[in-house]
């Protein structure tokens, strides 16, 4: 039986976490991707390696990702699929449990591994333990931790696009507006390099020190929960178990002590650098390279050194 | 408040002062300060003799309910917990924070989000709340599911990951934390809201309020009383520790750091 992946996209292409979900789905069956939005995003999905079919609609009902109509649509399509997956993004985590309950199955959230068609590995207790769970449900509804699956290649596929079915509007909620920050920097969960600041940054103005280095490196900017709670960085910058889970090639933690819940969000990064003036900070216990020093002195030097050569 | 299920004909006036009845589910979990240990036999994590507390996101949910009541937007707050008898402690905490009464759905053994959602649906059928506020996820199983599943079973709208909740136009306006920023939704009532970290900072219960909470009523029910089958759908085959990361080396200078990143790690 085929497997359905609900895509996230940025208006022109499906996101990297979506391609990670495709990679997970490919272990389970022939992959159909559902794209709700502009045609260009659906076209991008046809090229993703391992995608057999793309279903597409530009129906305005789904433009803002309201959970109620979206869940109704997925449920109406579910009979043709053994598994329904989505990346564990804000959108995926919002809708998939709703879909699961409507199908009377237990959602399997944030999987980090596929053992077989019924069995999955998922982190629990903020990533301090990994549980292997086997589902007895006839159909599986799953969200996928993108950092745990190498994304399917963006090019190489040649799937056909078909029209997605039409769904009903339950009319329970309406979209009022959004404040989405458009950034030139890469998306946190897709960036090759992430540089994050902690409470030691001291103010939102001081985050410029980090942003400036990020721009030199082509990096995304993240933050610890402490920095977000203090108002130094916006909420969607938060890296950690309750924020974004990232696994870039290089993660640079600046003025971050390394609370368990932060480590849960970044410890799968390939190379970790910690810069902190407290040499006892727990972040050093997971760092490949640690530099003890005052970030306000170190970061300008770091930026200057990057500019050399 | 309009009758539940009255869908379209909600008064769209400023008279949101018509107060709501609130239901707040609270979960008993290993305290967030405890470093959890995986059991040697791989069946789970050690919970014997470990400090247990209310799930932190549920504390935010209770706080939000109490604030709505203090503003005059709510009349009554019911705290509900499902699990072993000891969940009474977490219900008492909610009562000390300002909830009016409690309901314990007593059950020993695993309760998955789908089962909890079915239990809550049955309680809601009896209590008819206008708004249910839940934590967005529990810090033990990290499922992030009960609120959405409950909304589905009830056919109610959901406002997940809320950083702001305001009664508005006969319904509620919810500001949500999403990838890339914030979004605002208008929900019809009755509705489900799940809390994110920035919604509020929960209060500590005062000693007088802790004493007062002892006198507030807690009703005890069993899943069978509610006609709900709570059999788990997932079997835990094993629980293991994640691979440990080795601490690396300290570098002495920024020059050395950049040199290592360029030539040793080759990541810049």
From TrEMBL, chain A:
<keyword id="KW-0274">FAD</keyword>
<feature type="domain" description="Electron transfer flavoprotein alpha/beta-subunit N-terminal">
    <location>
        <begin position="3"/>
        <end position="179"/>
    </location>
</feature>
<keyword id="KW-0285">Flavoprotein</keyword>
<keyword id="KW-0813">Transport</keyword>
<feature type="binding site">
    <location>
        <position position="199"/>
    </location>
    <ligand>
        <name>FAD</name>
    </ligand>
</feature>
<dbReference type="InterPro" id="IPR014730">
    <property type="entry name" value="ETF_a/b_N"/>
</dbReference>
<feature type="binding site">
    <location>
        <begin position="224"/>
        <end position="225"/>
    </location>
    <ligand>
        <name>FAD</name>
    </ligand>
</feature>
<protein>
    <recommendedName>
        <fullName>Electron transfer flavoprotein subunit alpha</fullName>
    </recommendedName>
</protein>
<keyword id="KW-0249">Electron transport</keyword>
<dbReference type="GO" id="GO:0009055">
    <property type="term" value="F:electron transfer activity"/>
</dbReference>
<dbReference type="InterPro" id="IPR029035">
    <property type="entry name" value="DHS-like_NAD/FAD-binding_dom"/>
</dbReference>
<dbReference type="Pfam" id="PF01012">
    <property type="entry name" value="ETF"/>
</dbReference>
<dbReference type="InterPro" id="IPR018206">
    <property type="entry name" value="ETF_asu_C_CS"/>
</dbReference>
<dbReference type="InterPro" id="IPR001308">
    <property type="entry name" value="ETF_a/FixB"/>
</dbReference>
<feature type="binding site">
    <location>
        <begin position="255"/>
        <end position="262"/>
    </location>
    <ligand>
        <name>FAD</name>
    </ligand>
</feature>
<dbReference type="Pfam" id="PF00766">
    <property type="entry name" value="ETF_alpha"/>
</dbReference>
<feature type="binding site">
    <location>
        <begin position="238"/>
        <end position="242"/>
    </location>
    <ligand>
        <name>FAD</name>
    </ligand>
</feature>
<comment type="similarity">
    <text>Belongs to the ETF alpha-subunit/FixB family.</text>
</comment>
<comment type="function">
    <text>The electron transfer flavoprotein serves as a specific electron acceptor for other dehydrogenases. It transfers the electrons to the main respiratory chain via ETF-ubiquinone oxidoreductase (ETF dehydrogenase).</text>
</comment>
<feature type="binding site">
    <location>
        <position position="276"/>
    </location>
    <ligand>
        <name>FAD</name>
    </ligand>
</feature>
<comment type="subunit">
    <text>Heterodimer of an alpha and a beta subunit.</text>
</comment>
<dbReference type="GO" id="GO:0033539">
    <property type="term" value="P:fatty acid beta-oxidation using acyl-CoA dehydrogenase"/>
</dbReference>
From TrEMBL, chain B:
<comment type="subunit">
    <text>Heterodimer of an alpha and a beta subunit.</text>
</comment>
<dbReference type="InterPro" id="IPR000049">
    <property type="entry name" value="ET-Flavoprotein_bsu_CS"/>
</dbReference>
<comment type="similarity">
    <text>Belongs to the ETF beta-subunit/FixA family.</text>
</comment>
<dbReference type="InterPro" id="IPR014730">
    <property type="entry name" value="ETF_a/b_N"/>
</dbReference>
<dbReference type="InterPro" id="IPR014729">
    <property type="entry name" value="Rossmann-like_a/b/a_fold"/>
</dbReference>
<dbReference type="InterPro" id="IPR033948">
    <property type="entry name" value="ETF_beta_N"/>
</dbReference>
<comment type="function">
    <text>The electron transfer flavoprotein serves as a specific electron acceptor for other dehydrogenases. It transfers the electrons to the main respiratory chain via ETF-ubiquinone oxidoreductase (ETF dehydrogenase).</text>
</comment>
<feature type="domain" description="Electron transfer flavoprotein alpha/beta-subunit N-terminal">
    <location>
        <begin position="42"/>
        <end position="230"/>
    </location>
</feature>
<dbReference type="Pfam" id="PF01012">
    <property type="entry name" value="ETF"/>
</dbReference>
<protein>
    <recommendedName>
        <fullName>Electron transfer flavoprotein subunit beta</fullName>
    </recommendedName>
</protein>
<dbReference type="GO" id="GO:0046395">
    <property type="term" value="P:carboxylic acid catabolic process"/>
</dbReference>
<keyword id="KW-0813">Transport</keyword>
<dbReference type="GO" id="GO:0009055">
    <property type="term" value="F:electron transfer activity"/>
</dbReference>
<keyword id="KW-0249">Electron transport</keyword>
<dbReference type="InterPro" id="IPR012255">
    <property type="entry name" value="ETF_b"/>
</dbReference>
């Amino acid at each position: 039986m085929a497997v359905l992946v609900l895509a996230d996209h940025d208006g022109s292409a499906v996101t990297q976490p979506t391609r990670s979900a495709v990679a997970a789905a490919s272990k389970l069956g022939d992959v159909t991707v559902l794209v709700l939005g502009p045609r260009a995003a659906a076209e991008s999905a046809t090229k993703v390696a391992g995608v057999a079919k793309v279903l597409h609609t530009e129906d305005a009902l789904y433009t803002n990702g309201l959970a109620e109509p979206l869940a109704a649509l997925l449920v109406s399509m579910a009979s043709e699929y053994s598994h329904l997956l989505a990346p564990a993004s804000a959108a995926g985590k919002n809708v998939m449990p709703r879909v699961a309950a409507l199908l009377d199955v237990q959602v399997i959230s944030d999987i980090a591994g596929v053992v077989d068609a019924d069995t999955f590995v998922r982190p629990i207790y903020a990533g301090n333990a990994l549980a292997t769970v086997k589902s007895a449900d006839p159909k599986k509804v799953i969200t996928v931790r993108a950092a745990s699956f190498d994304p399917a290649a963006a090019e190489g596929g040649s799937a056909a696009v078909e029209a997605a079915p039409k769904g009903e509007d339950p009319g329970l909620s309406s979209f009022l507006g959004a404040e989405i920050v458009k950034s030139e920097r890469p998306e946190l969960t897709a960036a090759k390099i992430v540089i994050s600041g902690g409470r030691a940054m001291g103010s939102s103005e001081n985050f410029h020190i980090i942003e400036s280095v990020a721009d030199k490196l082509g990096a995304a900017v993240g933050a610890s929960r402490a920095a977000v709670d203090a108002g130094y960085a916006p909420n969607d910058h938060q890296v950690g178990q309750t924020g974004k889970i990232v696994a870039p090639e290089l993660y640079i933690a600046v003025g971050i002590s390394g609370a368990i819940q932060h480590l849960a969000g970044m410890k799968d990064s390939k190379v970790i650098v910690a810069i902190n003036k407290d040499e006892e900070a727990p972040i050093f216990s997971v760092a490949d390279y640690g530099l003890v020093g005052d970030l306000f002195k170190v970061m300008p030097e770091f930026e200057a050194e990057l500019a050399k050569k | 408040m309009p009758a539940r299920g009255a869908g379209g004909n909600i008064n769209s006036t400023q008279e949101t002062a018509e107060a709501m009845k609130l239901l707040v589910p609270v979960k008993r979990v290993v305290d967030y300060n405890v470093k959890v240990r995986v059991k040697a036999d791989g069946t789970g994590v050690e919970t014997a003799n470990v400090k247990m507390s209310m799930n932190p996101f549920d504390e935010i949910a209770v706080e939000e309910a109490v604030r709505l009541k203090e503003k005059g937007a709510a009349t009554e707050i019911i705290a509900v917990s499902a699990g072993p008898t000891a969940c009474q402690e977490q219900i008492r905490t909610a009562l000390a924070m300002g909830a009016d009464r409690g309901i314990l759905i007593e059950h020993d053994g695993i309760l998955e989000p789908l089962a909890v959602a079915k239990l809550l649906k049955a309680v809601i059928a009896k209590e008819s709340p206008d708004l249910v506020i839940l934590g967005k996820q529990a810090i033990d199983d990290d499922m992030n599911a009960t609120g959405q599943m409950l909304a589905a079973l009830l056919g109610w709208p959901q406002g997940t990951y809320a950083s702001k909740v305001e009664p508005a136009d006969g319904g509620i306006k919810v500001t949500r934390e999403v990838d890339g920023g914030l979004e605002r939704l208008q929900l019809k009532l009755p509705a489900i809201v799940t809390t994110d970290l920035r919604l509020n900072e929960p209060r500590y219960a005062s000693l007088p309020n802790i004493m007062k909470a002892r006198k507030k009523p807690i009703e005890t029910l069993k899943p069978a009383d509610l006609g709900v089958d709570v059999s788990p759908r997932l079997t835990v085959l094993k629980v293991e520790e994640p691979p440990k990361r080795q601490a690396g080396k300290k570098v002495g200078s920024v020059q050395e750091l950049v040199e290592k990143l360029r030539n040793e790690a080759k990541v810049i």
